Amino acid sequence: MKGVIINVDVYQQIREMSTIQGMSQRAIARTLGISRNTVKKYCDGNNVPWDRKEYSRKADVLTDDVLDFILQCLEEDKATGLKKQQHTARRIYQRLVDEKEFTGSESTIRSAVSRIKASIPKSFIPLEFDPGEALQVDWGTATIYLDGVKTTVNLFCARLCFSCAIFVRAFKQQNEESFLEGQMQAFEYFGGIPHKVIFDNARVAVKEGFGQYAKLQNRYKAFSAHYAFQPTFCNVASGNEKGLVENLVGLARRNFLVPVPKVKDLTILNHLLLEKCNQYKQHVIQGREGSVETRLRQELPYFYSLPKYRFDTSKTVTAIVNEYSTVRFEKNNYSVPAFHIGKEVTVKAFGNSLEIYHKATKVASYERIYGSGGQTKYTLEHYMSMLEQKPRAVFHAKPVRQNIQKELLQWTTSFPNGNRDTVKLLRLCLDYGVDKILSIKKQIPSDVQPSIDLVLSYLDVPTATNIIPIHKDVVVDTVDLSEYDKKYGMAVSK
């Protein structure tokens, strides 16, 4: 039984035979079928089988020169600060073979690199900020149910460094529009602008470089100039430089979004997040005097004032309305009122929404579409004038099918005037809401012929008739006819 692994049961037998029964080491080894050396090791209780020493024999090929080379490679990575361009264990092995004529195996170098990395201590300097001095911002992700669909949303998180007041807002994408909008809304929520904003090296803000060498994107440069704060970017892989907001990302996920929210749209979710941010103001952070709200009030006098004009955070383009009364933006289409066909409009795309203007007048607004493209958002009202002129298209019109339930369209096929009554019913849907019209449908008995006039009666709306209404009481002024009688010699009765 040589090479057997000694477990607790075998160890117990060795100890009992040696201590209680007084058996010799040779007899114990023969009885248990193990070596005498094993019995000798455990019979006195000086060693235990569960306390094993790791095998850490230093490979002969791992000379001091090789170990120094590995350490030098790791220090170069730290000095360069490029997270995506660092030495892997394989690359170090390749360099050792090429530059040091290393003859050992790659696995030996992998083990050595792993041990050296683990032995390098991490150290951070504790940071402290003055009131109004700085705001840390960052992105995180979370999962919600959006209109019944499991969806990943992006959380823009901002935290003041002195008071630790927080602001969290959900966006569909981590794009430039969302980044600018999130910061602007954070400034407005806190009631002023901190002197600097600390962020990592995201491409929505940084054109090239990193840390103190970062060059701003043109839009972010204009944004920071408008709000008069100093953008400050972290060094690569230095999350400790914005540790407050990184903690906020986790806090928001665990405390604000558990249980997982089920919302119709992001507007509802953002109202929920704003309520949570307000509640957090009552929180008292360990090691800081006063609540978050108390410290925020102390910060307010130190903030820069908000500018009179809000920065336009949208992505803005101009487009021509096509013959289908839609405008194309980022491979997706949005409808506008039909009388704008052929005209030039301005499209303003914000983080979660999109607005369309014609000569400074807003003509349409939508929830912004993201994705591979090819989608179209229709507003039924934009097509009503055309449907009234071309009622035969009503059952196949995309704006109708996208906005009206099949149940309602099927019902209108039983109306006396078919297509024209359907168009009239669509107008009532716009005026009173689809749910209201559906509720009337359920109230009308199945054996009664539906009609527009009948629907109007349930809405308490007077039906249209060809009869001219006449007032019952006609006011007639009193006329003195005595002068007329005298002129024509009429007899006056006495």
Keywords:
4 domains, alpha/beta, four-stranded antiparallel sheet, RNaseH_sf, Nucleotidyltransferase, domain 5, Transposase, IstA-like_C, OB fold (Dihydrolipoamide Acetyltransferase, E2P), elongated, 18 helices, 494 residues, Integrase_cat-core
3D architecture notes:
With 494 residues, the chain is α/β, with parallel strands linked by helices. It has four domains: 64-119; 134-302, Ribonuclease H-like superfamily/Ribonuclease H (Nucleotidyltransferase, domain 5), CATH 3.30.420.10; 315-376, OB fold (Dihydrolipoamide Acetyltransferase, E2P) (Beta Barrel); 383-458, no CATH class. It has 18 helices and 15 strands. The strands form four sheets. Strands 1, 2, 3, 4, 7 and 8 form a six-stranded mixed sheet that branches. Strands 9-12-13-14 form a four-stranded antiparallel sheet, with no helix packed on it. Strands 10-11-15 form a three-stranded mixed sheet, with no helix packed on it. Helix 2 (25-32) crosses helix 3 and helix 15 crosses helix 16 (434-443). The longest helix is centred in the first third of the chain and has 17 residues, at 64-80. The chain is elongated and about 165 Å long. The model is unreliable at 236-241 (pLDDT under 50). Residues 127-301 form the Integrase catalytic domain. It comes from Alkaliphilus hydrothermalis.
